[in-house]
């Protein structure tokens, strides 16, 4: 075992003998480890994880959000007769009372209890699975409806402020005088024609017509742990982007990714469209999972959330392409442009079929 990792582990309040520490080979190398302790013949497992301080520059605020939300969830889950040990992440405090520690290089680490007998999926293999995912994210909204979202820190300011994202996009266009701007001329014009759409959600929030809620902001399928035996959602993970926001953000991001007919780097745009069956499954699960926590106005704007978050994502891919691929990891020169075209094709698709998605949503209102 690496001495530095053993030293990091020793800073957390865990009783028993450390018996193993295995590096997780998926995701970012050297950032996650599975740790096992033994006490009195019983073993306990934990996840040791390094916080990405390049993206999340204030770990105190980040962990304050996460510990506050998970603590609240544990109380709600217990009150409803559920299992708070599996229903949400349980973070371990350090000996100094904080929920993260620093290594000798200044890196920040945290630890939480391992949840066993679960699996996560990269793609929705069926409408039943995507409905269950929708229910879990809707239930997340229901359970946290009483939490003061405005007490949370914005760990990534303006993360889903699409109006601000548009300003960033125009700055990228203005700063690109080379060949890439000419190649992406059609896509630039496509986004500009939809400029007014970008402010819909933030304007509704500012006017008080949309409530500010605790939002996950990264509602991909693989951020749900599914029980291997029952197929039911157990726990929502990857809480780094938990911030104040709109339920439309979480609905929109899940639909953008999970209801698409293709992965977001599919270059053949004839293969790219929104699947009605997947949209319907997620909408049904999300609204029923929310259990009345959403307002009538929020539900009516869910298709708009899917539209705007897809437009925002396409805009971000396009801006990064124009800036020389400085944010998103790319595998070839046109990777971000392909992603942008993919997302903008979905924008066009939902525009032409918007009434269909509204009718589907209304069935579960």
Characterization of the model:
The protein is α+β, with helices and mostly antiparallel strands and 365 residues long. The chain folds into two domains: 3-116, Phosphorylase Kinase, domain 1 (2-Layer Sandwich), CATH 3.30.200.20; 127-362, Aminoglycoside 3'-phosphotransferase, Chain: A, domain 2 (Alpha-Beta Complex). The chain has helices at residues 3-9, 59-79, 84-87, 127-143, 162-174, 179-183, 185-192, 200-206, 247-258, 276-290, 296-300, 302-322, 335-352, 354-362, and strands spanning 17-23, 32-39, 42-50, 101-102, 108-113, 118-119, 213-215, 224-227, 233-236, 243-245. A five-stranded antiparallel sheet has the order 1-2-3-5-4, with helices on one face. The chain is globular, with a radius of gyration of 21 Å. The model has no long low-confidence stretch (mean pLDDT 95).
Keywords summarizing the entry:
globular; 365 residues; 10 strands; Aminoglycoside 3'-phosphotransferase, Chain: A, domain 2; Phosphorylase Kinase, domain 1
């Amino acid at each position: 075992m690496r001495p530095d990792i053993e030293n990091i582990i020793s800073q957390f309040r865990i009783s028993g003998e450390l018996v193993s520490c295995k590096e997780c080979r998926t995701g970012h190398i050297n950032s996650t480890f599975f740790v096992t302790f033994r006490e009195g013949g019983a073993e306990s497992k934990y996840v040791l994880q390094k916080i990405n301080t390049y993206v999340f520059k204030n770990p105190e605020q980040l962990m304050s959000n996460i510990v506050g939300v998970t603590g609240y969830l544990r109380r709600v889950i217990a009150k409803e007769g559920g299992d708070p040990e599996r229903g949400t992440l349980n973070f371990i405090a350090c000996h100094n009372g904080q929920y993260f520690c620093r290594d000798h290089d200044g890196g920040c680490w945290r630890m939480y209890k391992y949840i066993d007998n679960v699996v996560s999926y990269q793609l929705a293999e069926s409408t039943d699975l995507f409905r269950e995912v929708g229910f879990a994210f809707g239930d997340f909204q229901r359970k946290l409806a009483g939490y003061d979202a405005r007490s949370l820190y914005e760990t990534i300011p303006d993360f889903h402020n699409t109006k601000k994202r548009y300003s960033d996009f125009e700055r990228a266009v203005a700063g690109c005088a080379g060949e890439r701007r000419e190649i992406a001329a059609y896509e630039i014009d496509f986004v500009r024609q939809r400029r007014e759409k970008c402010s819909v959600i933030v304007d509704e929030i500012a006017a008080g017509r949309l409530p500010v809620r605790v939002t996950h902001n990264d509602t991909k399928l693989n951020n749900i742990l599914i029980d291997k035996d029952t197929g039911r959602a157990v726990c929502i993970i990857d809480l780094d982007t938990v911030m104040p926001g709109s339920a439309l953000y979480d609905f929109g991001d899940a639909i953008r990714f999970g209801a698409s007919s293709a992965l977001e780097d599919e270059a053949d745009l004839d293969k790219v469209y929104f699947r009605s069956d997947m949209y319907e499954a997620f909408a049904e699960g999300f609204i029923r999972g929310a259990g009345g926590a959403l307002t009538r106005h929020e539900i009516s704007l869910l298709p708009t959330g899917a539209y705007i978050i897809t437009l925002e994502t396409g805009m971000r891919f396009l801006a990064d392409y124009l800036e020389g691929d400085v944010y998103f990891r790319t595998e070839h020169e046109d990777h971000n442009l392909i992603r942008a075209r993919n997302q903008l094709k979905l924008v066009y698709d939902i525009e032409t079929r918007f009434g269909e998605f509204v009718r589907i949503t209304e069935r579960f209102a």
